[in-house]
Amino acid sequence: MKKAPVNISSLENIIDPMLEGKYDMGEMEALVQVALQCVEEDKDTRPTMSC
After folding, report:
1. Could you tell me how far CA 10 lies from the centroid of its own chain?
2. pTM
3. Which helix H or strand E contains 11, and what residues bound it?
């Protein structure tokens, strides 16, 4: 699984402010990586439901 670099300041802009900083940044980066894979144009590069 290739990873695209995630800009931390951009990531902080999309995290729900109601979390009030109570989250693990590493986990948030992983969630964004999966979300980016899920919207890949080529269906064969998207993660499968059986991962």
Report:
1. 12
2. 0.66
3. helix 8-14
